[in-house]
Every structure is written in C-alpha cells, then in structure tokens.
Amino acid sequence: MRWLSKVKRVVGQDKSSAGALDQPAVGLPDRVLQTDAPPIKSPPMQIDGRCMSADEFVQYIEGLEMPDPLPTRFFLHHTWIPTRESWKGHSTLLAMKRHYEKQLWRDSQGRLREGWTVGPHVFVAKDGIWLFSDIRYDGVGVYGHNYLSRHLEMVGNYNDELPTGETLKNTIVALGVLHEKLGLDIRNLYFHRDFSSKSCPGWAMQKSWIIPQVERWIQEYRASRQPQVPPVDELASLRAALERLVADLLVDPDLESTLTSAAEQRGLVGALTQQIPVEIDEQGHMVQFFVEALLAPSHQQDEVLSLGEFEHARHSDDGDEPAAPEAGEPSDDDDQDPKGDGRSQTKRSLGSLRLKAPPTDPHEFTGRIR
C-alpha cells in the first residue's frame, strides 16, 4: 500500500518497526492499523498570519467579539523546534502550517485523517505576537483536551533556560489580556505537560515563576482601565466652602438670568435676593444683591483681595493667561483712576444717579430680602 509507506514516514516508522502497525490504535494514530483505509485528506488549514506588537495585540483582543461557549482552560506551550535562533517569522509560521497539515488523527468515528484543520492560536516570539488559528474558537494543542481550550506557543526551547527579553514580555502581555478577555483566572493556567509526558512548555518553566508576572500585568492593566478621577481644583473647593459658610443667607437665584451669569463672571459668591425692578433716572432696571467675599492673609491684613481677584492671581501664578473681559464687562483699563480718588469714571457716574423707589410694576416682586 503506497499510502501506508507515506504514513510510516509521517509517524517516523521504518521497515524494522512495521510490527507496530498491528498494535491497537490509542490516542493520536501513532499506531496505524493494517486494516485502516487510506487517510482522508483534510482541506488546507486556514490561518491568520498577522504579526502584532504587544500594544496592537491588546487592542485587537479588546475589540474582539467572543462567541459562546467561552473556553474554560488556557494552555501554555513551547515550540522546542523552531528555536529562537531558527525562527524566521512569517516563513517559519508557514512551515508550521505545512507541518500540521501532515499530522494524522482520528475523527469521532475512528476514521484516519491527514492534516489538522486548526492548530495553536498564538505564536509568541521576539519579533511580535503571531496570530495563527482563530482565537474565538477551539484549536488543537493537547490531545484529548482541546474542547473549550485555547493554546499559546512560546517560540523556543525552554527545557534548560527561561524565556527572556521581548519573547517573555510578549508572552506575559498575551497571557494577561487573553485571560482577562476570556474571563479566566491566570492562577489556573495549564501547561501542556499537565496532560502529557512531554516537557512542554519546558522543564525550566514553572508556574510559580510565570503566573506572578502575569498577575502583576493584569493588575496594572485593570488599573489603567479605571475612570481617571480629575485632580482636585483647590480654588473651586475654596469657593464651595465659602458658599457653605453663608448658605443660610443666600436665596436660590434664577440661574438663567443675566445678572446671575454676570455675577459668576465677576467672581461673586452667591445671591442674597431675587431680581428687583427699580427705576433709575426714568429708566427701568433690574437689581440683585450678591455676596462679595474679601480675603486678606492673616499676617498681611492690608493686602485685601476680592475672591475673584484672589482666584485670578492664583491662575496667573500657575501660568494661566488672564481671561478676556466678556462683552459689556469693564476691562482693567475701565477701572483705572487717573485722579487717584479710588473711583473709576464709571463708578462716579453711577454714584451721581438718583435712585428712586420702584414704580408700579405689572410683574409683582415675589422675592425676599433677608
């Protein structure tokens, strides 16, 4: 049988070991029976083939939709061959694909087949994280334990040494983000050798060494995804504290009114009254009384600033540019007093106006002065 000779080459048997073919088939078809029909050739394996940096892989996994049922186990492997030195990136990945396409296996009905249809999910190397089989679905990596499992291959032989450098970094990132995405506990990480006589992922690799490193990465990853609390605005806290001090004197103002908006722009603390209609020189006006807070250092009581001036000075000390005056708001030039009497031209003109009691108004005043 010509196919039988091919099978011998695949499973590594020569004529001297042909008697092994009469042994009953156990597990993977390392023992092929004379009664077996020629193996059924599987279609070519479909792989992804992309290489990603650690950051790109994290973003890729974060955006991946994972269908149910989710896996319950994650296996860590090493390739053994190829080694780190013989790894050539994409060309080696294609060689691994061809290798898997020659593997013999038995389906659920016991029929002999040639060629895996899927393989490991990820190959991690010093040049990046390589996507192989679709991470959303089961792959192949441990005989008899591939259902609801995922498999990561570290490129290299780690029987006598531990992974280092970019290979180790990429392994930690890939294990961390995949366990988070799949809802698996990294403390339950499986090694291939847990279910096999193989050394995989290498005798040098110990769970007590790799798991704590992945745990630290997961903790940092979770912390980075927490909503960032904005820094405390000390000036806003000061203003809020002052308003609490005089809360029993303040009324609830009309927040939509022009005067309330102007008071906020001028740094006033809060409203003492509602708006009151008054007539000034035969012209109707609305007036509203607001709290003005003055501050002075306890050791320099002559350096008095209004709350607005105090905040402006603090912002200037922090390097902030002073805000441009609002339309209709007096600028610094408006408040200059060339005569030195402490009053601007605007203030003097307002002081000379005659204030009269409010006339009869169709809008009844409903506020109160306390």
Quick summary:
The protein has 370 residues and is an alpha/beta fold. It has helices at residues 2-11, 54-62, 90-100, 165-182, 207-224, 234-245, 258-265, 307-317, 345-351; strands spanning 40-41, 51-52, 73-78, 104-106, 112-114, 122-125, 128-131, 149-154, 190-191, 276-280, 283-287, 294-295, 305-306, 355-356. The chain folds into 3 domains: 1-38, no CATH class; 44-224, Peptidoglycan recognition protein-like (Lysozyme-like); 234-318 and 346-356, no CATH class.
Structural description of this entry:
With 370 residues, the protein is of the alpha/beta class. It folds into 3 domains: 1-38, no CATH class; 44-224, Peptidoglycan recognition protein-like (Lysozyme-like, 3-Layer(aba) Sandwich); 234-318 and 346-356, no CATH class. The protein is 28% helix and 13% strand. It has helices at 2-11, 54-62, 90-100, 165-182, 207-224, 234-245, 258-265, 307-317, 345-351; strands at residues 40-41, 51-52, 73-78, 104-106, 112-114, 122-125, 128-131, 149-154, 190-191, 276-280, 283-287, 294-295, 305-306, 355-356. Helix 2 (54-62) packs parallel to helix 4 and helix 4 (165-182) packs across helix 5. The radius of gyration is 39 Å and the shape is elongated. It starts with a helix and ends in a 14-residue tail after the last strand.
Strand order in the largest sheet:
2-7-6-8-3-9
What CATH calls the topology of the largest domain is Lysozyme-like
Name of the CATH homologous superfamily of the largest domain:
Peptidoglycan recognition protein-like
DSSP helix count?
9
- Percent of residues in beta strands: 5-15%
Percent helix among the residues?
25-40%
Q: What is the residue-mean pLDDT, rounded to a whole number?
A: 80
How does CATH name the architecture of the largest domain?
A: 3-Layer(aba) Sandwich
Described by the principal axes of the CA atoms, the overall outline is elongated
Distance between the termini: 109 Å
Number of strands: 14
Poorly predicted ranges (pLDDT <50, ≥5 residues)?
Answer: 13-27, 321-362
Rounded to an integer in angstroms, the radius of gyration calculated over CA atoms is 39 Å
| Largest beta-sheet characterization | 6 strands, mixed
